[in-house]
Amino acid sequence: MKNSQIEQELYREISDLTPDVLKNIIIKDEGENIMEYKEIKKRMNNPLRIISAATAAFVLCGTASIFAYNSYACDSLITLDVNPSLQISANKNEKVLEVKALNPDGEKIIGDMDLRNVKTDVAVNAIVGSMYKNGFITEEKNSILVTVENNNEKKSQEISEEIRKAIKDTLKSENVTADIITQTNSKPNKKDETDKTTLELAEKLQISFGKAKLIEMINEKNPNLKLDELAKMNMEKIVTLLEETKTDITGIVGWEKDESVKENLDDIIDDAQDAQDDKNDADDDKDDKDDDKDDKDDKDDKDDDKDDKDDKDDDKDDDKDDADEEKEEIEEKAKEKEKKEKDKIKDEKDKEKDKADEAKDKADDDKDDVEDKDEDEKDDKDEDDD
Questions:
Q1: What are the pLDDT digits (tens) for 68-79?
Q2: Residue among 56, 63, 66 at smallest CA distance from 8
Q3: Of these four, 59, 109, 111, 269, which has the most CB atoms within 10 Å of its CB?
Q4: Sheet bearing 179-185, strands edge to edge
Q5: What pLDDT, in 10s, does the model give residues 93-125?
Q6: Judging by DSSP bridges, how do beta strands 143-149 and 179-185 pair with one another?
């Protein structure tokens, strides 16, 4: 089975497992009616269809193992805000890695659906259908904010158009008009202080990064419109509130008075994104220059390391020579000391021998003197006797 056939089969099976919603729905995109969509029916009574879907998924997983990086690395973040907020993580092939609820209503929308490894437009069909079934999209609540985050601006625009088309193809036919507001951003950078603040706000208020960025700008122009209150509103209420409060967003970015509030929001979002992209491009250029400098520094460091190694080798040789010389000096001094000690001992022995000889000579002399004296006394006695 070819990959295209596998994807078609998986698309069909996912569509069959989507909740039974979307009867005769129509949305309006910037004032124009869009496409019709047939009722999605939930069919799970045919085991062969389930086996077929499982088999298709298995084959796709086997193919994906060849391209592991593209399959498991997050390339795009797609956020849908009505009041439920959901975030779709997708890989480079626009296959879903994860669908994450950003608030309790989002969890209700996901329910028990498992949309992993399906195309993003299929996932959007299922999510928007569930929103309608659960009453989050109606004639009165009919604004949808779509935020696409990808570091490639061209791809962000392409994905945004695909998602817009998927919503058009899902919501169709009558009685409901919906406005689709789109914005594209680079993926949030936690090192950027502005993005970091927006990410913290989104986490605190349990909304998407895109909606957090939008309400931050609105609050900046009209501080009376509180962030926590705006976060609780769906997109339709936010637009209505801006009109009711006559909030002037002229100073935010590119306000044109002959446009509607929604159109101006689109312009603001686009202009803000352009500014962010310019900033990202400047940061990328700076990073490239820093990388080049780092490469040069790395080369210099390697040369320095080599010089240091050579110096260390020379130092080792010098240390060895010094150690040898020191050893020789120590040995020479030890020999001299030993010789001096031996000479000293010999001198002391010679002195002792001389003293002994002198004492012996003296004793002999004393003995001779005594003998001479005795002989003299004997001779004197003999003379007296005569």
A1: 556 788 999 999
A2: 56
A3: 109
A4: 96-101, 85-90, 76-81, 143-149, 179-185
A5: 999 999 999 889 999 999 999 999 999 999 998
A6: parallel
Under a CB-based contact definition with an 8 Å cutoff, are residues 163 and 121 in contact? yes
Give the position of tokens 């797609």: 78
Average confidence (pLDDT) over 126-133: 89
> Cβ atoms within 10 A of the Cβ of 69, count?
8
Give the chain's length.
386
Amino acid letter for position 286: K
Q: How far apart are CA 107 and CA 113, in angstroms?
A: 10
Tokens linked to 272: 């803000």
Exposed (0-12), middle (13-18) or buried (19+): which is 108, by Cβ within 10 Å? middle
Residues 210 and 79: beta-carbon distance below 8 Å:
yes
**182 φ, ψ to 5°?**
-115, 150
Return the residue matching tokens 């929604």.
262
* pLDDT tens per residue, range 27-59: 333 333 333 333 333 444 455 554 455 555 555
Q: Which residue, chain included where needed, has tokens 């603040």? A: 197
Q: What is the per-residue pLDDT across 221-276, written as a single tens digit (0 to 9) for each? A: 889 999 989 888 877 788 788 888 887 655 543 333 444 555 556 666 666 666 77
Nearest to 131 by CA among 161, 170, 158: 170
